[in-house]
């Protein structure tokens, strides 16, 4: 479904008025550090860590359309497996596609277009998307960084019919830094953690929706500390509990630690 520039401008103006920093709607608890940071970590809303088996599975599945190998991301819900990936074009731009499997990834349904408006001629050298499938609502949510027609930024799209079709994507935040994103959902609550595209020093931000992703009412910048380099966010939501994790380098050439911050939503 094509996006009209006029509607995206309205959304961008709305995004500029979202809550930042000290106006955060999240009641945060003390940030914890885990050292060293593991290479395959998922988080629960309690802040606990588990092995991310979906990451291992993503490297083994065969999708119905060509994929940038390192871009494949999976989500599991209600006995189904949902995939999202970048599919390269001959001009080095890419399509963002999604598909559903009901047999643990052995076969896949017809791919759905999440976004076809990429203008970044970077081939498969691009940040992978993020995907979440919510059993409570049946929605599938996708976030990603992309060079769009009107400029680079972070975008969000979701499907209300279990991944068959996706609504027109909307921007979360514009900026030159095309970084990693992470999305999680629990009923009405949708959270997107991201590498801030407008910051000179890598830091982690958070966008929050209490309307299943139809509108993002809050943007929290930053979630990470301002005086450190924070990358590779992970987010999880369970009811009104939220957890955000990221990798942080505390000093030049210093060790990388995993930082986890938990809190409560309104």
Structure explained in plain terms:
- There is one protein chain.
- This protein has 266 residues and is mostly beta strands.
- Helix content is 7%, strand content 42%.
- It contains two helices and 19 strands.
- The chain has helices spanning 5-16, 53-58; strands at residues 27-28, 32-34, 42-43, 49-50, 73-77, 80-88, 94-101, 112-115, 130-133, 140-148, 151-159, 170-174, 181-186, 189-195, 204-209, 218-220, 229-238, 241-249, 256-264.
- The strands form five sheets. Strands 1, 2, 17, 18 and 19 form a five-stranded antiparallel sheet that branches. It has a four-stranded antiparallel sheet with strand order 5-6-7-8. Strands 9-10-11-12 form a four-stranded antiparallel sheet.
- β15 (204-209) and β16 form a beta hairpin.
């Amino acid at each position: 479904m094509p996006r009209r520039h006029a509607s995206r401008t309205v959304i961008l103006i709305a995004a500029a008025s979202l809550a930042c920093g000290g106006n955060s709607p999240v009641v945060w608890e003390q940030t914890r550090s885990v050292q060293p940071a593991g290479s395959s970590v998922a988080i629960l809303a309690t802040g606990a860590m588990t092995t991310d088996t979906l990451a291992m599975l993503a490297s083994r599945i065969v999708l119905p359309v060509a994929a940038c190998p390192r871009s494949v991301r999976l989500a599991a819900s209600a006995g189904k497996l949902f995939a999202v990936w970048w599919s390269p074009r001959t001009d080095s731009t890419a399509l963002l596609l999604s598909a559903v499997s009901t047999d643990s990834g052995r076969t896949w349904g017809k791919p759905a277009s999440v976004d076809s408006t990429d203008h970044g001629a970077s081939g498969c050298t691009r940040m992978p998307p993020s995907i979440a499938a919510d059993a409570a609502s049946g929605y599938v949510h996708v976030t990603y960084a992309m060079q769009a027609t009107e400029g680079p930024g972070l975008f969000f799209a979701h499907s209300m019919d279990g991944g068959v079709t996706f609504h027109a994507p909307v921007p979360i935040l514009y900026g030159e830094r095309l970084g990693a994103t992470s999305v999680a959902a629990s009923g009405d609550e949708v959270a997107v953690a991201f590498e801030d595209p407008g910051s000179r020093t890598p830091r982690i931000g958070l966008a929050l929706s209490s309307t299943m992703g139809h509108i993002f009412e809050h943007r929290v910048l930053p979630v990470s500390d301002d005086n450190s380099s924070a990358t590779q966010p992970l987010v999880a939501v369970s009811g009104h509990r939220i957890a955000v994790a990221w990798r942080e380098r505390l000093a030049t050439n210093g060790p990388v630690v995993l930082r986890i911050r938990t809190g409560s939503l309104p």
